[in-house]
Write a structure and sequence with these properties.
Elements lengths: L3 H6 L3 H30 L2 H9 L1 H11 L3 H4 L2 H19 L6 H29 L5 H29 L2 H22 L13 H11 L3 H21 L2 H4 L4 H22 L9 H9 L11 H12 L4 H11 L6 H29 L2 H29 L19
Helix pairs in contact: 2-3, 2-8, 2-9, 3-17, 4-7, 4-17, 6-7, 6-9, 7-17, 8-13, 8-16, 11-16, 11-17, 11-18, 13-15, 14-16, 14-18, 17-18
């Protein structure tokens, strides 16, 4: 499937995107409002970065204990429930007089339950679309995320000059409720993709199975680590340019949109695998110039160019899906989203700590240098793995056997 026309004629694809767009808009506006609220209250780059991206660390716990539910629970009910849970938590965060530590309790709790969202959405998209439409559909999904971020951060930046951060948090809560309604009314009530009850042992068994082959491990690491380090740089926009943070986030979203559109629509399937390393390098190299402390205009250019490199995730997700059976697609994508979110949270913590000790510009440069180093190392390991692989093994590298029946 190489046509947007056929893609949007696919039943349920449009309401699926609309429900995600409302959820993403809520996250974008709420995240910038929360980061601004914490920065104004504490003056700390570390706490500001952690408030925006640190909750993703909690997804690591969710991935360890809850992720089997991505394939073993009905997707519509899960997505509706998550949106309502986020609405409630965001409304609580807007309460006047709520101490900073209580804000962190709320957002970390949200991060814990959010671990199901990525896997459920990824698995549902895999069901809604045919195999040949997955990359194009995922690129549109990412493009919507980029457009919503671009509009959301720009809107949030403007709103924060007129309204208080707490008022913007209430707006985000309303958008979460809208996402829940679109999900409930626009999607079919599907049964779970896999049998058995979600449980901690089932989550661990399947995660171990997914992690059991070297090609998949390299794919997961390529999805997680370079991305997480650069998101650590992104988390410092507020302390780096307090009055223009929304603008930088918006230009970053523009770069993501351009990259996803180009890779999903214009690049031939045979050429996509060769783009994984160049795109990950593009993601990091422009941030090396932040050591020169560029002004807002040059920073926006660098952020836009770098964010095109986020399209590497399309290439690597396609590789991951080629190594995973359909009945484990939700947990495989959920493990990806959980690991990526955890590494982004770690990146934000590390970047915030470096900024506290040095400066935001120096911290952004150091995180970019680390991302380049990791990408080159993974590329070398991937070439070594290709050299070890038999010319014709008769099976896909790292392909999974269906796991034994579980509880």
């Amino acid at each position: 499937m190489r046509s947007y026309r056929f893609l949007f004629r696919t039943p349920e694809f449009t309401p699926f995107l609309l429900s995600f767009a409302a959820f993403a808009a809520a996250q974008t506006i709420g995240g910038l409002a929360l980061g601004t609220l914490v920065f104004r209250a504490t003056g700390s780059p570390f706490l500001s970065a952690v408030s925006m991206f640190g909750p993703q660390l909690a997804q690591l716990l969710g991935g360890a204990f809850l992720l089997s539910g991505a394939d073993r629970l009905p997707p519509r009910a899960v997505l509706s429930g998550l949106a309502l849970a986020f609405a409630a938590g965001t409304a609580v965060s807007a309460l006047p007089g709520l101490p900073v530590w209580a804000l962190f309790v709320v957002v970390l709790s949200q991060g814990l339950v959010a671990s199901l969202g990525g896997g459920v959405r990824g698995g549902l998209l895999n069901e809604i679309l045919s195999k040949d439409g997955y990359v194009l559909g995922r690129s549109v999904f990412n493009m919507i995320w980029g457009l919503v971020q671009m509009a959301g951060f720009a809107t949030a930046g403007a709103l924060l000059t007129l309204l208080s951060p707490r008022t913007c948090l209430l707006l985000a809560a309303a958008l979460y409720v809208m996402s829940a309604l679109v999900t409930r009314l626009g999607l079919t009530a599907r049964p779970p993709r896999s049998t058995g009850r979600p449980s901690v042992p089932a989550t661990w068994r399947t995660n171990a199975l997914l992690w059991s082959s070297r090609p998949r491990r390299l794919t997961y690491l390529g999805l997680w680590v370079p991305n997480g380090l650069i998101v650590g740089s992104d988390s410092l926009y507020v302390p780096y340019a307090p009055q223009a943070a929304g603008l930088l986030y918006a230009f970053g979203a523009l770069g993501m949109f351009v990259g996803d559109m180009a890779v999903g629509r214009l690049v031939a399937p045979t050429a996509r695998p060769r783009l994984a390393t160049p795109l990950r390098l593009l993601l990091a190299v422009p941030y090396l110039f932040f050591v020169l402390r560029p002004g807002v205009a040059l920073s926006a250019v660098a952020v836009t160019v770098a964010s095109v490199g986020f399209a590497a995730s399309l290439v690597l997700q396609e590789r991951l899906m080629s190594l995973t059976p359909d009945d484990l697609a939700g947990q495989a994508l959920g493990l990806h989203v959980t690991g990526m979110a955890a590494l982004q949270g770690i990146g934000a913590v590390v970047a915030g700590t470096l900024a506290q000790l040095t400066s935001p510009a120096a911290a952004m440069t150091l995180m970019a240098a680390g991302s380049v180093t990791v990408t080159l190392t993974l590329a070398a390991l991937g070439r070594h793995e290709e050299g070890r692989r038999p010319a014709d093994s008769g099976t896909r590298p790292g392909a999974l056997s269906k796991p034994a029946a579980t509880d």
